[in-house]
Each structure stands twice: as C-alpha cells, then as structure tokens.
Amino acid sequence: MFTELSSKLELIIKKLRGQGKLTENNIKDALKEVRRALLEADVNYKVVKDFISKVEARAIGQEVLKSITPGQQIIKIVYDELTLLLGKDSAGMKYSSSGPTVWMLVGLQGSGKTTACGKLASYYRKKGKTPLLIAADVQRPAAVEQLMILGKSLSIPVYSSKDNPVKICQNGRGKAIEEKLDLVIIDTAGRLHIDEELMKELSLIKKEVSPQEVMLVVDSMTGQDAVNIASSFENKLGIDGIILTKLDGDARGGAALSLLSVAGKPIKYVGTGEKLDALEIFYPDRMASRILGMGDVVTLVEKAQDVISQEEAQKLEKRLQQKAFTLKDFHVQLQQLKKMGSLDSVINLIPGVSGTLKGISMDDKALIRIEAIISSMTDVERMKPHIIDGSRRRRIALGSGTDIQEVNKLLKQFTVMQKMIKDIHKMDLRKLKGIFKF
Ligand SMILES: Nc1nc2c(ncn2[C@@H]2O[C@H](COP(=O)(O)OP(=O)(O)OP(=O)(O)O)[C@@H](O)[C@H]2O)c(=O)[nH]1
Ligand SMILES: [Mg+2]
Q1: Considering the domain 297-437 in this protein, what is its CATH number?
Q2: What is the Å distance from ligand 1's center to 245 Cα?
Q3: pLDDT at residue 122 tops 90
Q4: Does the pLDDT value for residue 305 go beyond 60?
Q5: Could you tell me the pLDDT band of residue 162, with boundaries at 50, 70 and 90?
C-alpha cells in the first residue's frame, strides 16, 4: 500500500531532517519533490496543486524558518495537510432508528462489492450486529451463487429470489424484520461502465428501500478514474461514502488522496486483501502517517487485540517490559500474526519497518519455513539465540529441512524484530504523536 509514494516521501523527509538550517529555496525544492512524488502516485493534478500551495504557504512562514527544527516543522505541516486531504476525522456509519439498518453497496463490475458485503457483514457481526445479506445482482448469472457461498462460509444468512432487484430488496428487508435481524447489506449489480440502465435500477432500489448508507465500492487500481467514477455515482445516484478496495495491490494510492477533495465523499473503509477479514476502517490521520512512512501503531494494536487474548497480551507485555523477548515468544507471535491477516499487511503497520525490512520476504510460505526452523531449536536455544553457533545452525537446518543460510537469515531477522518490538514498546501513543510535534 502506497509503497512507492511512501519511500519517496521518506527520502524527502530524511533529507529535510538532515538540514540544520532551511532556506526558502530549499523548502521550495523539497516541495517540488513532494509534488512530483504525488503526481507519480497518480494523485489528481488539481489536488496536488492545491495541496502544495497550502503546505508552501505554511512552510515558508516565519514560524518555520526561525524554529530550531525546521525540518520537523515541515514534516508536521505535510502530515497535517495530508490528514485534511484524507478527511480529517473518520466518518462513521448511519443506523436506522426503527427497523433494520440497511446499507447498499454499489459500484462498477469487479470493484469488490460482493467481497465488501461479506467483509462488512463479518466485521459488524463481531461488533454484535446480526447481518442479512441480500443478493440483488441479477445481472451476472453466477452473482447470487457467489454471495451464497460467501454467506455460507461466514454462516451469515443470504436472501435471494427470482424477482426483480427492487422486489428482492423489499422482500429481503421484510425477511430481516421477520427474523429480527438488525443489519441488512445489499449486494447490487455492476457494469463495465456507468450506464443509465444501471443507475435507474440502483436509484429505484434506493428510493424503495431507503438505505441509511449508500456505499460506493471503488477499486484503487483504477487510479485517476476512481475519482470520475465516484463523481458520477454521486451525481446520478447520491452516495454517502466510499469503500476503497485492493489497496494491498500495487496501486499507487492516488485515488485515496484525491477522492474526498474531488468527489466530496469520505472514504469509510479500505479493503486490503481478498480474505474476508481484510477490511479496515479508514482513519485519515493514521493513513497519513502510514503514507509518510511513520507506520500505524494504532491499527496494529487494534488488529492484535482482535486476535490475541487478554491473557496472552499481558504475558507478552510483561516479557517486553523485561526486555526478554525471545525466539520462543517470536514463535508464538508468528502464530498470532498469521491470524491477523497476511504478514505483509501487518508488517507495513509497524513504524519505520518498510525501510528496515525491505528485501526480506515475509510471505506466508516463508512463515511456514520460519516456524519449522524455530521448531527445530531446543528451548534453551529459543531463549538464548546467541548460543546458536555453527554446528547448532547445521543441526537446526537439517532438522527443519532448510539450509544454514535460511537459519542465519532468520536469526538476523529476529534481531531486527527484537529491536523493533522494543522500539514500539518504548513508543507509546503520546510519543508517537510527539514525532510530529517535537
Ligand atoms: N487483493 C484484493 N482483492 C480484492 C479486494 N476486494 C475484492 N477483491 C477481489 O476482486 C475480485 C472481484 O471482487 P467481487 O467482490 O466479486 O467484485 P464485484 O464488485 O462484486 O464484481 P461484480 O459482481 O462482477 O460486479 C475478486 O477476485 C475479489 O477476491 C481487496 O481488497 N484486495
Ligand atoms: Mg458482485
């Protein structure tokens, strides 16, 4: 997510930090680079222009030039403006005060609507809601079947029938009332392009079912086009918010940064993978710090809380406090991490890591090998990895069906991770905010 933009901005930031004294000229130079990085990330041209002029106006101010840490001041300005660009506060969802809450998902073909329906249903069930999915896509032959399978895998009921989409939605809502289910999520049909027929169908559903939220699902890979799609849906149908999907891909992220200012509607969720737990609530400030390569500790902690039991968390906390984080803990942590989603997505949330771990493959297959290596160690070795000498390495490699290079690599990775975990531990949230304030 935002990998390229992030690494470019990180580089610019590093340069700025390194400069003791800043002049109007080198601020302008740095901002030129920021401008280029944003354009290359496919951010809308007007948005970039506006953004840079705002940052420049603040950065060239006396307050920055006279300050002792001008570099940091500018980073804070960039961070502030980036947050504003993304939406300032996280936009919540609306609920019905009488009867079931209805959310309707719309979007072009393949944008990720059906998947997002499943993700939302699963997410809100964890929060205590009782969801019902409605299959209102009668356009694509296999669409109903797809939602059915998805519902089945989540054990969430799906309503479908052979009626027209409006009728399906009305009856589905009726079923939710009958069965006392409190959250209805409607999966609608997509088209390759925005066409009148689709808009008519969606408008009719909207009119008849009055959903509390009409959410537009947009594929972040569509880049600049995402903005046009959002504007069209807003003009023709009226939407309440956006779910930006496939941010795990190699999208350059420009869509995320342009959507609010151009289409005027907030991003409420982002999809970060094909799995049904790969959904995150969109927080502008957290996203801004992620883009600036500062990581996202809050999301990481929340993700961890979801899967790590309180007791385990306390145990880990204690070990961290004693600075006794060992390969044994690492082994347990790896298993927890696996439950948190793909390793890459988790690793990206850790501050400063994108740079540190670059080039180290953290895919799930690698994880299995890592587990095998740690399993082949003795308990003492796991507690005191420094005793693992050449012959022990050979034995471990043999036992785990790997080779010495891999064992070496793991031990090195572990040292990096140990340091990182200590760093995170040292950095509580106030301090994290402090990074931007000084
Ligand atoms: N990597 C990744 N893939 C996703 C994400 N969301 C959806 N997909 C994939 O994108 C493809 C299309 O997703 P669907 O949910 O079927 O899209 P849709 O909008 O319902 O498509 P139509 O019903 O044909 O209009 C599927 O292969 C999904 O697994 C995401 O956040 N990340
Ligand atoms: Mg679909």
Answers
A1: 1.10.260.30
A2: 8
A3: yes
A4: no
A5: very high
Q: How far apart are CA 190 and CA 140, in angstroms?
A: 8
Summarize pLDDT for 11-39 with one digit per residue, the tens.
Answer: 887 787 776 667 888 888 889 999 998 88
Threshold 0.90, pTM exceeds: no
What is the CATH number that goes with domain 3-86? 1.20.120.140
Q: CATH 1.20.120.140 region(s) of the chain? A: 3-86
The larger pLDDT score, comparing residue 334 to residue 328, is at: 328
Q: Measure the CA–CA gap between 208 and 34, rounded to whole angstroms.
A: 47
CATH architecture for the domain at 101-291? 3-Layer(aba) Sandwich (3.40)
Mutate to test the pocket of ligand 1, among 150, 270, 274 (most ligand atoms within 8 A of CB): 274
Is the per-residue pLDDT at 435 higher than 50?
no
- Pocket mutation for ligand 1, best pick of 1, 109, 111, 115 (most atoms within 8 Å of C-beta): 115
Half-sphere exposure of 37 (CA within 13 A, CB side): 22
Task: Look up tokens 């009782």; give the residue.
Answer: 130
Q: Where are the beta strands (DSSP E) in 54-136?
A: 101-106, 131-136
Q: Based on the number of CB atoms within 10 Å of its own CB, is 197 exposed (0-12), middle (13-18) or buried (19 or more)?
A: exposed
Ligand 1 pocket by Cβ (under 6 Å): 107, 109-115, 137, 140, 143, 190, 217, 245-246, 248-249, 271-274, 278
335 has pLDDT over 80: no
Q: Where in the chain is the domain with CATH 3.40.50.300?
A: 101-291
Ligand that comes closest to the CA of residue 251: 1
Side-chain-facing half-sphere of 384: CA atoms under 13 Å: 3
Q: Which of 192, 172, 190, 194 is nearest to 181 (CA)?
A: 172
